[in-house]
C-alpha cells in the first residue's frame, strides 16, 4: 500500500504553503499526485510522486508541473518552489504541463514542506531599448514635482485611454504633454519603467495602481494588486480595504476579501488590532 497526503494548505494571494506526507507499505511500484493547487485563479501547481521498491530499496522521484489556466492569457507566470526538508529552491515558468523532476530519495516514510511564490509578467517588452532614449521622445508626462519624457507610440501601445487621447484632437496631443495633478514624478517614472521594461517598484505601488486603473492597463493593475495583496496582514487589512473602496479598485478589494474569507488574514486578529489602535488613540 502506498499513500500520499497533502495537508496544512495555506494560500495567500500569489503564494501557497503545503505539507506532503508520504508512506510506502512495501508497494513495488506506485504513482500518486496531489490535487491541483490553483494560485490566484491564474495558474496551477501540482506535485507527483513515482515510487518503486527494487531489491528492498525504496526509490522516490518527486515531480512538479506549473501551468497557466487560460491559454489566451497574455501574462507569463514564473514560480519559485522551495522546500526546507528537501533542500531545494527551483524556479519554473508556466509551460505546457511538463513534469519537472525536483527531488529524489530512498525513504520509506517522510514528510516534506513546499512553499510556492508566483510572479506574473507580460511577455518580453519590445520597447526596452527605448527606455533611456532621449533623442526620439516626443511626449511629456507632468507630475506635481517634475516630468518624465516618453514616446507617444509606446504610450499608445500601453493604454487604450492614452491611445484615444494621442490620436484625437485633444489639447494634450497638440501641446505634447499631459498634466497629472496629484501624481509625483517618481510615480510617473514607475509607470514609464513598467511600460518600457515591465519592471515594478518596491514601494509606491498604491499610486501606480491608481494610474493603471485610470488608464485601463489591466496587466499592470493585476501585478500591483498581487504585490499589495501579498503584504496584507491583520494590521493593515482595514486600511487596504478603505483605500480600495475609496478609489473604486474592485480587484484589490476582492483580493483582500478573499484573504479574509480563506482565513489567511484572521478576522479576530483584525478586530484585536482595531481595538488596540482605538485604545492607543
UniProtKB/TrEMBL annotation:
Q: What InterPro entries does the entry give?
A: BTB/POZ_dom, SKP1/BTB/POZ_sf
- List, for all copies, the residue spans of the domain called BTB: 137-196
- What this protein is called in its record is BTB domain-containing protein
Organism of derivation: Helicoverpa armigera
Name the gene.
Answer: HaOG207952
Amino acid at each position: 500500500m502506498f499513500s500520499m497526503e497533502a495537508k496544512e494548505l495555506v494560500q495567500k494571494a500569489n503564494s501557497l504553503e503545503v505539507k506532503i506526507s508520504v508512506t510506502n507499505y512495501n508497494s513495488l511500484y506506485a504513482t500518486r499526485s496531489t490535487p491541483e493547487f490553483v494560485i490566484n485563479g491564474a495558474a496551477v501547481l501540482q506535485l507527483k510522486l513515482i515510487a518503486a521498491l527494487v531489491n528492498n530499496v525504496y526509490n522516490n522521484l518527486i515531480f512538479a508541473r506549473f501551468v497557466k489556466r487560460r491559454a489566451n492569457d497574455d501574462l507569463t507566470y514564473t514560480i519559485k518552489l522551495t522546500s526546507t526538508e528537501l533542500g531545494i529552491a527551483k524556479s519554473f515558468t508556466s509551460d505546457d504541463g511538463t513534469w519537472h523532476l525536483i527531488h529524489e530519495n530512498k525513504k520509506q516514510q517522510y514528510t516534506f514542506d513546499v512553499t510556492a511564490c508566483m510572479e506574473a509578467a507580460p511577455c518580453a517588452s519590445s520597447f526596452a531599448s527605448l527606455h533611456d532614449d532621449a533623442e526620439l521622445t516626443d511626449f511629456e508626462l507632468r507630475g506635481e514635482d517634475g516630468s518624465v519624457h516618453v514616446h507617444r507610440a509606446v504610450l499608445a501601445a500601453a493604454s487604450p485611454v492614452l491611445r484615444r487621447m494621442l490620436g484625437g484632437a485633444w489639447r494634450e496631443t497638440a501641446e505634447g504633454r499631459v498634466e497629472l495633478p496629484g501624481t509625483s514624478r517618481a510615480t510617473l517614472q514607475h509607470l514609464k519603467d513598467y511600460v518600457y521594461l515591465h519592471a515594478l517598484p518596491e514601494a509606491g505601488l498604491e499610486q501606480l495602481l491608481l494610474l493603471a486603473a485610470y488608464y485601463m492597463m489591466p496587466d499592470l493593475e493585476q501585478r500591483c494588486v498581487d504585490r499589495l495583496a501579498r503584504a496584507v496582514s491583520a494590521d493593515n487589512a482595514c486600511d487596504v480595504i478603505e483605500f480600495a473602496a475609496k478609489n473604486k479598485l474592485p480587484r484589490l478589494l476582492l483580493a483582500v476579501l478573499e484573504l479574509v474569507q480563506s482565513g489567511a488574514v484572521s478576522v479576530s486578529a483584525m478586530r484585536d488590532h482595531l481595538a488596540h489602535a482605538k485604545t492607543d488613540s
